[in-house]
Automatic annotation (TrEMBL):
Designated name of the protein: DNA helicase RecQ
DNA damage found in the keyword field: yes
UniProt GO cellular component terms: bacterial nucleoid; cytoplasm; replisome
Catalytic activity from the UniProt record: Couples ATP hydrolysis with the unwinding of duplex DNA by translocating in the 3'-5' direction
Cofactor(s) essential for the protein: Zn(2+); Mg(2+)
Gene: recQ
Section covered of the full-length record: 1 to 529 of 732
Species classification: Bacteria, Pseudomonadati, Bacteroidota, Flavobacteriia, Flavobacteriales
Keyword DNA-binding in record: yes
Family stated for the protein in its record: Belongs to the helicase family. RecQ subfamily.
Top EC category: isomerase
Any GO MF annotation of the entry: ATP binding
EC number(s) given by UniProt: 5.6.2.4
Domain Helicase C-terminal residue range list: 222-379
């Protein structure tokens, strides 16, 4: 199909009423119209849907859109039907349809009326649907939320794994469009491999959100008071506060209410009606704040969320990026504040310990990254974008001064000698202890485990006694993050040297330790120093 830019623009205007394409949309659409495999990586709100909707409307045949959530499909179908007189122009094909409805959908597809057919991967896998779709003219298959293919993504769906073989059965050379807002190189690799789209043209938009301000504060026992103070300073503004547990969601919402802040709780434990009511109250601005678990947010498009607070550290940088991404959609201010205590990380670790080993391994690796984010003293924006494989100039880049570290550089101190002492203890004890024992050995304290191994008789016992346990705990974490030590997965928590750690022992070099967080011995809560 040979189309000029004017044709494309007039179609855009005709179907969607927009006069300009957003970002990479036009280039993506041109590629799709040329029947090429296409991989679109754009942050949420970047305008991915239009990338396949417009070519689907312009092309002959029906485009299949694979999507993981019925609610998302329904929204899109409603939106498309809104731009056309024809109800049949877009359909969802799923197992909840009645026989009559299925018949109607199939009729519309066969008659060439349906341009977009939304299906969940489970429905696409059904033999009767494959048999039906084989016989109709398909323009392309769009795999929305393609990160669901990858275990390293934030929403792994095993059914997504089989898509390629199903698509192959639908016909020869059907173009595939993969779309995701997950930017990590690992996930992208998985998607390309799994969908066998090595020749796809990749369109990747920047994930930088220059209007978002990133901040991490130590989480103390006064975290509720800190949150109340923050919300009061931002009175009248919309905000989301994420908590890990449902219980905490309810408690915190109540604490806020008692303190005169209009807030509602939200989590998956409420029935659908209650959830819808609280969500509407937030969207309609009857309340300022929603205190929620991560169940809240998917598909929420409130443009003027002014802050996103994480009461507990999220399970990955990816989740953090997605959750904070709900702030400042309108381009205005968006403050992303995370409270961090290592204790929370241990909670998440414990939570994962019952899961299959492979899952734990991934979960822990992702967790180490978010710990590194929380503890880092470098530009947080640079850190996040680096994680997504994007280079960011922390001096001149857009939004360079928009984080706590950029505004208030944290003090650091040389810890080369201490790292050496730590690595030696791990090595000399034959890598059999967890952090707790290693730290005790360093400061020269005994427990049953240590005395049973007679470690207290060794010459390295107590070599770090000039520092306290909280110092060593912090150093272990930073050394883990720096990749000199790693935790064993099988007997989780046992410290091992990495190759980089061995190398450090042979050729010690400077190690800059950030002096920001200190953890008290009893409860491992951060205290501000
Ligand atoms: P994503 O799927 O990437 O999160 P959406 O497809 O939901 O993003 O698009 C986000 C918003 O941008 C929607 O409200 C959509 O209508 C709007 N949008 C998309 N393309 C354009 C455009 N070319 N001009 C103006 N608005 C657009």
């Amino acid at each position: 199909m040979s189309l000029t830019s004017t044709d494309l623009h007039s179609s855009l205007k005709k179907y969607f009423g927009f006069s300009k394409f957003k970002g990479l949309q036009e280039k993506v659409i041109e590629n799709i119209l040329e029947d090429r495999d296409t991989f679109v990586i754009m942050p949420t709100g970047g305008g991915k849907s239009l990338c396949y909707q417009l070519p689907a409307l312009m092309k002959e045949g029906t485009a299949i859109v694979v999507s993981p959530l019925i609610a998302l499909m329904k929204n899109q179908v409603d939106a498309i039907r809104g731009i056309s007189e024809q109800t049949g122009i877009a359909h969802v094909l799923n197992s909840s349809l009645t026989k009559t409805e299925v018949k109607q959908v199939k009729e519309d597809v066969v008659n060439g009326l349906t341009k977009l057919l939304y299906v969940a991967p489970e429905s696409l896998a059904k033999e009767e649907n494959v048999e039906f779709l084989k016989k109709v003219h398909l323009s392309f298959v769009a795999v929305d939320e393609a990160h669901c293919i990858s275990e390293w993504g934030h929403d792994f769906r095993p059914e997504y794994r089989n898509l390629r073989s199903i698509i192959d059965r639908l016909g020869d050379n059907i173009p595939i469009i993969g779309l995701t807002a997950t930017a990590t190189p690992k996930v992208q690799e998985d998607i390309i491999k799994n969908l066998a789209m090595t020749d796809a043209k990749v369109f990747k938009a920047s994930f930088n959100r220059p209007n978002l301000f990133y901040e991490v504060r130590p989480k103390t026992q006064n975290v509720d008071a800190d949150i109340i103070r923050f919300v009061k300073q931002n009175q009248g503004k919309s905000g989301i506060i994420y908590c890990l547990s449902r219980k905490r969601v309810e408690e915190l919402a109540q604490v806020l209410q008692v303190n005169g802040i209009s807030a509602v709780p939200y989590h998956a434990g409420f029935d659908a009606k209650t959830r819808a009511r609280y969500q509407d109250m937030f969207l309609m601005e009857e309340v300022d704040v929603v205190v929620a678990t991560i169940a809240f947010g998917m598909g929420i498009d409130k443009p003027d969320v002014r802050f996103v607070i994480h009461h507990d550290i999220p399970k990955s940088i990816e989740s953090y990026y997605q959750e904070t991404g709900r702030a400042g959609r309108d381009g205005g201010e968006g403050h992303c504040l995370a409270f961090y205590a290592y204790k929370d990380v241990e909670k998440l670790e414990k939570f994962m310990s019952g899961k299959p080993v492979a899952e734990q391994e991934i979960g822990n690796a992702l967790l180490q990254e978010i710990v590194a984010y929380a503890e880092t003293s470098m530009s947080r924006r640079k850190f996040i974008l680096h994680y997504f494989g994007e280079d960011f100039d922390e001096v001149n880049g857009e939004g360079a001064d928009m984080d706590d570290n950029a505004r208030n550089p944290k003090p650091k101190e040389e810890a080369k000698d201490e790292v050496l002492k730590l690595l030696r203890v791990v090595k000399e004890t034959n890598e059999k202890f967890k952090t707790k024992e290693v730290v005790k050995i360093l400061v020269g304290k005994v427990n049953a485990m240590i005395s049973s191994h007679k470690t207290d008789e060794k010459e390295f016992f107590g070599t770090g006694s000039e520092k306290d346990e909280s110092y060593w705990m912090a150093l272990v974490r930073q050394v883990l993050v720096a990749g000199l030590l790693k935790k064993e997965i099988e007997r989780y928590g046992i410290l091992h040297l990495t190759l980089a750690g061995e190398e450090f022992l042979k050729n010690p070099r400077s190690f800059q330790m950030t002096k920001d967080h200190v953890y008290s011995e009893e409860n491992d809560q951060a205290v501000i120093t």
